[in-house]
Amino acid sequence: xxxxxxxxxxxxxxxxxxxxxxxxxxxxxxxxxxxxxxxxxxxxxxxxxxxxxxxxxxxxxxxxxxxxxxxxxxxxxxxxxxxxxxxxxxxxxxxxxxxxxxxxxxxxxxxxxxxxxxxxxxxxxxxxxxxxxxxxxxxxxxxxxxxxxxxxxxxxxxxxxxxxxxxxxxxxxxxxxxxxxxxxxxxxxxxxxxxxxxxxxxxxxxxxxxxxxxxxxxxxxxxxxxxxxxxxxxxxxxxxxxxxxxxxxxxxxxxxxxxxxxxxxxxxxxxxxxxxxxxxxxxxxxxxxxxxxxxxxxxxxxxxxxxxxxxxxxxxxxxxxxxxxxxxxxxxxxxxxxxxxxxxxxxxxxxxxxxxxxxxxxxxxxxxxxxxxxxxxxxxxxxxxxxxxxxxxxxxxxxxxxxx
Length: 404
Hints:
It contains 14 helices and no strands. By secondary structure, it is mainly α. It folds into 2 domains: 193 residues, MFS general substrate transporter like domains (Growth Hormone, Chain: A, Up-down Bundle), CATH 1.20.1250.20; 182 residues, MFS general substrate transporter like domains (Growth Hormone, Chain: A, Up-down Bundle). Helix 1 packs across helix 6 and helix 5 packs across helix 12.
């Protein structure tokens, strides 16, 4: 059957796509400012100075709780057959606990509050992404992924906004973050009733990629491919400034932040263009394989860089490619999951690709950088990205089938 002869899937209107993109961005706003800026500041206030050990402990235990909470929340939304109620509950619980973080009176209390906050946060995030699978047909999953590139960009912008000198009182920053999250998430919940499609929620046993031997193979390849890129992306996010200062001592913090912001801004239109291209040409996996290959290219350029200009150029290529990869992958994952009735649970297992790298990456860095330098770390990351590209290329050229 030719592409033109295929029945046209009922698509969601642009207004709902925009509202969902803002709701997904609200999830990023909920955690990016806290984990990158406000939590380290709160630890410094409690401990009387920077305390890397407390920050590491808080981050590690938070990631562990987030891993289990996301799976459990997804399963709850599957079992009850509803998403919006759980998203709202998670919004309320996570917002209350976010504000409570500012009232912690000891490091131990702070760790416990962040762990509890992760439960509430994932009670919102897990059903939110499963809801996307309930609402958006395969013919829109590319552009859906493109809009998800807004999430890290708005998350970083929110962090800059609440910490901009004199704009927000330090005591009110967590309140402002909670308000921003509510303003971004609630419109989709209030206007998104009856947007779920019955045909997207019905159990199906067929593979979703033409000629793919088994849907399970596609799922495993997608999981491993994302995990490998996330390890590289997480490593660069954590050590970007240190690496740049190894090339140019005294490299300013604001310059590193500006580069990071530039990457996120550039990724949004490029993700939208590639996502729309993948929808129109029905090649959902091909852009992912291409982006993983570009990630490896950027990392190798960074590994051999002897000048600051080449180093920054390599990083921009890597980081833009990784940002596009992660946003498009998030939506295309919905395509390969074989059991819509377990969509929330299965997305919870895919969420491990976000949390496990935070536990793996520090050990890789400790093992490699002191003895071999950052170049060895980047070569390892490049190899991981190449493996990711190879896994995806094995079925990237196969056209997607309609699943309605």
